[in-house]
Structure formats: structure tokens, C-alpha cells
Amino acid sequence: MIEKNENIILKNITQYLVAFIQLFGLYVIAHGHGSPGGGFQGGCILAASYILMITTLGIEDTKKKYNEFKKHLFNSLGVFIYAFTGFVCLLLGANYLDYSGLSNLFPVDPIKARYIGTFVIEVGVGITVMSIMLTIFVELLTVKRKQS
Amino acid sequence: MIWQVDLIILLLIVVLAIAIVNTKNLFTATILFGGYSFLMCVLWTGMGAVDVAFTEAAVGAGVSTAVFVAAIYQTTRRSKD
Amino acid sequence: MKILALIVSIMTGALLIYAAEDFPSWGDPNSPTSLHVSPRYITKTYEETKIPNMVTAVLADYRGYDTLFETTVIFAAGITVLFLLRGNRDD
To answer: Around Cβ C68, how many Cβ atoms within 10 Å?
Structure first.
């Protein structure tokens, strides 16, 4: 699983399929308002695309695209986006996580501002879930046990 | 909801749960757990809870199966008890 | 010992089935949740937030604190896995 799989069918199918899986994950996050889905589910689908890349293309090739710095950045970026959105609402005079306060920042009415705020925090949830699921998988796959 | 379909799915879920507990091969248990999650997903879709079903399909049948496989990769494939 | 565990499992299951008898049946329009909480969200969600999917509106807007700390729990789980499994390495 850690090594690169040399099967030509698996390699080619994975390379084309990953793009579509990631597109579907982004669709689920972006359309969490109108259809079933949201940040959590979309993040899991994005994580599944990277898990497919790791299992077929090998962990070394995947780490070039998703390196250590990106892992630590995305782990905390999602929670930061969520909490920071709530804090911006607090600064603009509304309660914490009351998105109608965002109407002072964007030129929209308070009802539309709640729609925008919901979308922003869905993106945050999606980023964190994607990164954490991938972190757990990669760490379990590459753990070195002590010689006992 | 059609009660005959519901009954078949519930019976399959019970059968799968007993099979997961009884099998000695951990890899088989993981794949059966994926099937169990998928049947729960179908049941929830029938009840109209589409968001819950989506989460179950993405997490239960997708990512958690991959995490179990990664854990089995580090240990043995046979259960000791 | 296995017999004892089986007896305990069967007794717990019987107790849960007995407790489930008191629940309102599935989709009962006269159950307390269908009378109190649900109509408020069903009628007011779209005018208050412009979000067509009620589940997302309740999760992310009305119950924002819940989802915030749910995300924090996932974050904590990932960081715990990172620390525990990396700490085992010799290098």
C-alpha cells in the first residue's frame, strides 16, 4: 500500500478518477444549502480521493502534492475560519456566530448575510475534516513500531 | 417506506452484525462492516433522513473502512481470540 | 464467562426494547417534537436565513456553537493521533 502500484490500469484510472471525485466533493460542500450534504460529507469525499491516491500511486508521490506544511496548515485552518467568522460577527456588533452582523461588512441585507456566513463556515468544516481524516490515515499507515 | 423491504434490510443488518462478531479474519470483518454501514445508509434514506444517510455513506462505508484497513496493515490479519 | 456475557447482553437488549415501546411511532404528527420544535423551523427557516435545506440551517446557523465544538473535537482527535503515533518513533 505504501509502495507504488505498477498496474497500468489502476494507475491510469486513478489519475483520471481523482479529479472527478474531488469535483464531486467540492460540489457537495458548495451545495450544502440546497441539497443534502455539507462540510462534513464533502470533506470526507475529498479525503477519500487522497486516500485513493495513496493506495495506488504510493505515499511518496502523494506527499509531493500534499506535503507536511500543507497538512499542518489545513489541520488548523478550518477551525480558524469557523472561529474567526464568529469573531468577525462579534466585532461588527452582533452576537458570536450570529451571521446577520456580516451585513455591515458586505452590501447585503441581514437575511442574505446569514446565508453567506453559513457557506463560509461550511468551507471551514470541510477543510478541517478533509485534513484530519487524511492525517489519521497517513499516520496509521506509516507508524514505525518500537522493536520490542 | 415499504415494510417488506424494511424487514429484509433489518434482517440483513442483524445477520451482518452476527457475522462481524463471529469471523476470525479481521479483513473480512472490515469489509462486512462496510456492508453494514451501507445497509444502514439505505435504511435512513428510506426514512427520509438523507443528510444522515449521506454522512453514513461517506464516513461509515468510505473513510472508516480505509482507516481500519490501514490499522490491519500494521498488525496481523487473524484475530487472536 | 461467555454465558454470563450473553445473559447480560440479552437482558440489556430486552430492557432497551421495553423502553422503546414508550417512544412515539415513526412520523407521528402528534408526538411532542412534531408539535413544538419542528413547525417553528419548518415555517421560519426560509424567511429567516434563505437556506432551502433545513438541516444545514439548523446545524450551521441556529446551532452554530454545537458545530463549532464538533469541529474542534475532530481537530483534537487528529492532533492526538499525530502526537501519539509520532512519539513512538526512535529517530
So the answer is: 21
Contact A48, B58 (CB under 8 A): yes
User: Which pLDDT score, from 0 to 100, does residue A145 have?
Assistant: 65
In this structure, chain B runs to a length of: 81
Which set of grid coordinates corresponds to residue A132? 484530519
Tens-digit pLDDT profile for residues C7-36 = 999 999 999 999 998 888 877 888 888 888
Contacts with C53 from chain B: Cβ below 8 Å: 51
Residue C88: pLDDT band (50, 70, 90) is low
Give the separation between CA A98 and CA A107, rounded to whole angstroms: 17
How far, CA to CA in Å, does A131 sit from each of A125, B75, C26? 10, 25, 37
Distance between B1 CA and the closest CA of chain C, angstroms? 11
The candidate with the shortest Cα–Cα distance to B72, out of B16, B22, B30, is B30
Name the DSSP class of C61: I
pLDDT interval class at A47 (50, 70, 90)? very high
Q: Which of C71, C88, C89 sits opposite A78 (nearest CB)?
A: C71
Is residue A89 within 8 Å of residue A95, measured between CB atoms? yes
Domain parsing of chain C, residue ranges: 1-26, 36-91
pTM score of the predicted model? 0.87
**Cα distances (Å, whole numbers) of residue C13 to A92, C1, C9:** 52, 19, 6
